[in-house]
Amino acid sequence: MTLQESYQAEKDKALRSMALAAVISVISGLCLLTIPLYLSQVYSRVIASRSIETLVALSIIAFVILVTYGILDAIRGAYLARIGIRFEARVASLLLAGELSLPKDSSQASLHQLVEVRKLIASNVLPSLFDMPVMIIFAVIVFVINPTLGFIVLAGMVILFSTALLNEVLTASKVKETDDSGAASHKALSNHFSQQELIKALGLYPQAVEHWGRLRARHLTQLIGLLDRNYALASVSKTVRNLIQIAVIGGGALLVITEHLDAGVIFATSVIASRALAPIETLVSGWRSMKQGRLALTRLDERVKKFRLVDGATQLPRPSLGLVAEKVVFIPAPGAQPILRGITGGFVPGQAVAIIGPSGAGKSTFARMLVGYLEPTGGQVTLDGQNIRSWDPVTRGSYMGYMPQAASFFEGTIRENIARMRVDDAPELAIEAAKFVGIHEMIMNFPMGYDTVISDGGFQPSGGQKQLLGLARAFYGGPAFVVLDEPNASLDSTGEGLLFETIRKARSAGIGIIVVTQRTSLLQQVDKILVLKNGQAEAYGTPAEVMPGQIVRAVPNKVSQA
Ligand SMILES: Nc1ncnc2c1ncn2[C@@H]1O[C@H](COP(=O)(O)OP(=O)(O)OP(=O)(O)O)[C@@H](O)[C@H]1O
Fold it and tell me: What PANTHER family does the record point to (predicted)?
């Protein structure tokens, strides 16, 4: 099942449940006819006949129906809240998985939008929408009682609907703008928190506050504009409803005088008219939240279309042929200069290839493309002949190892981190990976060994230790290919020795290694060298072919220019 199908299934389920809530709404709405009916009956029967028995009987019936209404209303509210919460709970994990499956531009925005959708489902706006059919029934009743009063109510409905439409016209673009500015301020805030080390060390509080404050102020200014309109229109609709009420009572009194209509019926009509108009009024005052919820749902739908994750995709066997880049081009944004300009290169199991070249040549970009983090703008990357985009990312990830330039860790134990957070895996696997890289002893010297928790403000491995732990994570589970981006940047000579030994063992274990490096020492450990310069492959071959007799002395950027 694709993620889109799972999302659609959850949406359908929520819609079906909401249909049931709408039915409850109609039934409970009809219960509200009790008050005007009671009023007219008391007025026309009880008072005229002075019958206490009739009054008691009518009161008991009214009591039972109104208690039923109260129960149904509570059930509807609780039910809608549950539909919203269940939708959020089920869709949130789909969204998080989907966002993380996207190359490059994953964002938390869709999770915020999901919250908006849930708020709409559980708000009082939907019930007022569900009350619309009852509203029409009430209006028809007024017409049947007296067409003149019916026309007054109809006129009121038209005016109130026009207010709702005016609200739509006045707020349509503003809601979107406000939503965008809110998302921008959220993004800035999470960026500041991720940069807190720098902010604290350099005392950049004023700059951080000012930057976020500017974005937040823009959002809040837009929000107040939106709220002003909404409140103004809500007041208009309230006033219109009150005036209609007066018109119905006044008109009714006139009819009693001129046409000798029953006064009880007239007062009952005024109550019915008021009930008939109430849902539109709630709708007008809740227009902004409804609009925001609808916009959030539209954005979620659009976002979900982009997700790639497939549940239960055919499990492809462990790759044994090769990882191949075919004329890959990467243009970071429309109109920007290409970072990669048509690179072709193949990597096979059991072979180590170094990628070298000057700073900014595109080495890391190429490495990110090989692991599927970046998507080529042109060309393709294939794993065993199949475009990596068509591989299920979870399966593909289990066959690949990757160590980015800055090794970072989840909040969790050393074992969990080495095990790629697959907490249910056998602990021996993490130990195996650590031993493969030669850092079992190092880990045993941590405060709690493999159970030492890495956390912000808690235990943090040193730069070199991070690279070695990242290396163990890259080799966890016996991957077919491992991509290492400058794995020795923070390593001392002992650490480098471990890295070289790991590469040697990996080659003999049939693992394909692709290693981006600036250090010539590593070039002695590889079978081939790919030299990148200005986004192009300048040379590709064995060390002897690419840089005959220079391996030990050569500096990568000089090599690539040679
Ligand atoms: N979004 C972007 N828009 C434009 N240029 C970008 C973008 N992201 C990265 N670049 C540029 O792409 C180029 C390649 O970056 P990359 O990190 O791949 O280089 P590198 O060869 O790994 O360099 P180093 O050895 O310094 O790590 C750099 O010049 C960088 O400034």
Answer: ABC TRANSPORTER TRANSMEMBRANE REGION (PTHR24221:SF248), ATP-BINDING CASSETTE SUB-FAMILY B (PTHR24221)
> Best mutation site among 340, 343, 364 for ligand 1, i.e. most ligand atoms within 8 A of its Cβ?
364
- Vertex 375 angle, CA 371 and 379, to 5°: 100
Say how many Å lie between the CA of residue 516 and the centre of ligand 1. Answer: 13
Q: For residues 241 and 106, state if they share a domain.
A: yes
For residue 29, the surrounding DSSP H or E stretch is: helix 3-31
The reply to whether ligand 1 has any atom less than 6 angstroms from the CB of 332 is yes
- Among candidates 122, 185, 178, which has minimal Cα distance to 295? 178
Q: Is 445 in the pocket of ligand 1 (CB under 6 A)?
A: no
8 pLDDT higher than 80: yes
Tracing tokens 């690419």 back to the chain, one arrives at 546
Q: Is residue 290 located within the same domain as residue 413?
A: no
Segment 501-523 mean pLDDT: 92
Same domain? 354 vs 254: no
Task: Specify whether the CB–CB gap between 150 and 281 falls below 8 A.
Answer: no
Q: Indicate the range of 13-22, 262-271, 479-488, 545-554 predicted with least confidence.
A: 545-554
Compute the average pLDDT of residues 45-63. Answer: 89
Question: Is 340's C-beta closer than 6 angstroms to any atom of ligand 1?
Answer: no
Per residue in 491-501, pLDDT (tens digit) is 899 999 999 99
How far is CA 286 from each of CA 107, 126, 293, rounded to the nearest angstrom? 28, 9, 11
Residue nearest to atom 18 of ligand 1 (CA): 362
The domain total for the chain is 2
Q: Please tell me the predicted confidence (pLDDT) of residue 101.
A: 76
Band of pLDDT at residue 324, cut at 50, 70 and 90: very high
How far away, in angstroms, is 108 Cα from ligand 1 center?
A: 25
Residues 268 and 333 in one domain: no
Band of pLDDT at residue 311, cut at 50, 70 and 90: low
68 near 288, Cβ under 8 Å?
no
Residues 134 and 213 in one domain: yes
Question: Furthest-apart CA pair in the chain: how many Å?
Answer: 119
Answer whether 541 contacts ligand 1 (Cβ < 6 A): no
Residue 313 lies in a domain: no
Rounded to 5°, the CA angle 488-544-503 comes to 30
Instruction: Specify whether the CB–CB gap between 490 and 300 falls below 8 A.
Output: no
- Enter the tokens of residue 60: 């008991």
Instruction: Select the highest-mean-pLDDT range: 42-51, 128-137, 298-307, 434-443.
Output: 434-443
The ligand 1 atom at the shortest distance from the C-alpha of residue 535 is 14
Which ligand 1 atom lies nearest to the CA of residue 362? 18
Distance between Cα 362 and ligand 1 center (Å): 6
Chain centroid to Cα 434, Å, comes to 35
* 298 and 328 together in one domain: no
- Report how far ligand 1's centroid is from the alpha carbon of 399 (Å): 27
| pTM (predicted TM-score) | 0.72
The answer, yes or no, to whether residue 340 has pLDDT greater than 90, is: yes
pLDDT tens-digit readout, 157-190: 888 888 888 877 877 778 888 988 998 998 889 8
Beta-carbon contacts of 123 under 8 Å, excluding residues fewer than 6 positions away, are 286, 289, 290, 293
